[in-house]
Amino acid sequence: DTATSNLGKHVLSCNEAAQLANMAKFLAGSTYTREKLRWLILVWIVRNNLPFSIVDTEQFRAIILLFNPQADIPSHTTITNDIEILFAMAQKRLIKKFAVRIFFFLLFCPLISW
Fold first, then answer.
1. Cβ atoms of residues 37 and 73 within 8 Å
2. Are residues 75 and 25 in the same domain?
């Protein structure tokens, strides 16, 4: 198959030093932070209804470490704790929002003649 043999020739012809220089240039502009990675993983898991344990899989870890070998990958326990904190924060905001609406409803409802 010429497709794979061409790919193999291309890989062999690539200059490793040039590849490392390109990688260093790319990483210099990196905006990685531990907190940002945790947040992005959390959003990805919640929005796609994924199991928390996906972060513990070898394949997931390999993908993250491919882009940043020093990345601090959160465990499923950390993700669980983060989701519980996020849920509690959202719950408080909703309760506060509804409390204000109920207050105004109760305040102005007697003034409305049906």
1. yes
2. no
Cβ proximity of 57 and 91 under 8 Å? no
User: What per-residue confidence (pLDDT) applies to 47?
Assistant: 94
Helix ranges (H only) for 1-114 are 2-13, 16-28, 34-47, 58-67, 76-108
Asked whether 44 and 50 are in contact (CB, 8 A), the reply is: yes
Contact 56, 75 (CB under 8 A): yes
Residue pair 37/72 in contact by the 8 Å Cβ criterion? yes
- Are the beta carbons of 75 and 57 closer than 8 angstroms? no
Residues 48 and 86 in one domain: yes
Q: Are residues 84 and 61 in the same domain?
A: yes
**51 vs 98, residue with greater confidence:** 51
- How many residues does this entry show for the chain? 114
Given a contact cutoff of 8 angstroms between Cβ atoms, the answer to whether 55 and 74 are in contact is yes
Tokens of 84: 């519980």
